[in-house]
Amino acid sequence: MCETCGCGDPEIVPIEVQQRILSDNDAQAGHNRSHFQGLGMLAINLMGSPGSGKTAVLEATAKAAGEHLKLGAVSGDLATDRDADRLNASGIVSATITTGSACHLDARLVHRALHDFPSEDRDIFFIENVGNLVCPAIYDLGQAANVVALSVTEGEDKPLKYPVMFQKADLVLLTKVDLIPHLDFDLAAVEDAIAHVMPEANMLEVSAKTGEGIDAWLQWLEKLRPAPAEQSAAGLPHEHHHEHH
Question: Which residues form the domain of 164?
């Protein structure tokens, strides 16, 4: 649990303090959202456990998209730049948000990263959240959609054990499906678990290794992208004021 916000635990941080923290975060998220919309950029909050395959999926996304889409990303990591290094090597313009002991990204961390981001000329901007199936679900970052990566190696019951994460999701990417023949994994069971917790169950089966499902994932992203007319209506990016704390 995060010592600064308690991530919903009133034994760590009183409820009124948590409410103020979330209120401040939501205000900053609104600013981020306006910034993304002003740039005509689709922002995706990609969440999931450590090792669920988030970075690998983004690498496969870049490979499949080729020059058709300009991709950017920030990667939340407690201590290293490894994920951002991998993404940059794959062709995704990327930067690291180092969180130290914080188990999630918040809107202010994303905002600061946007100030120093190498390029605003991106079609899709991925926010690769810290590996965690609890805390990241609570924080709005200004994204257009939440996506949760769930690996077949994690088992079928994770949606039932961590319902808030999946309740907040717009899409679940079932990753590493190439391993199913080698595992005791029940696909119908995970589909049932997701149906029980997601308001509108939506899952894609993908494999970063074989490329299975990546085209369907790209099609899902394309449907969310603002139409050219909407981008023109958004106009030039609004003036972006820096706050110093």
Answer: 14-225
- Distance between CA 52 and CA 173 in Å, rounded? 10
pLDDT score recorded for residue 227? 76
pTM for the model: 0.87
For residue 242, the model assigns a pLDDT of 44
Domain count for the chain: 1
In angstroms, the CA 157 to CA 154 distance is 8
| pLDDT band, residue 237 (cuts 50/70/90) | very low
Query: What's 47's domain CATH number?
Result: 3.40.50.300
How confident is residue 89, by pLDDT bands cut at 50, 70 and 90? very high
**Residue 51 resides in a domain:** yes
**What is the chain's percent helix, strand, coil content, to nearest 5?**
45, 15, 40
Task: Say if residues 206 and 212 touch (Cβ distance below 8 Å).
Answer: yes
Amino acid at 110: V
In a domain, 2, yes or no: no
Q: Mean pLDDT over all residues of the chain?
A: 89
Asked if residue 136 is part of any domain, the answer here is yes
Structure tokens at 97: 């948000």
Q: HSE on the CB side for 238, CA within 13 Å?
A: 14
Read off the amino acid at residue 26.
Answer: D
CA distances from 167 to 3, 142, 179 (A): 24, 18, 26
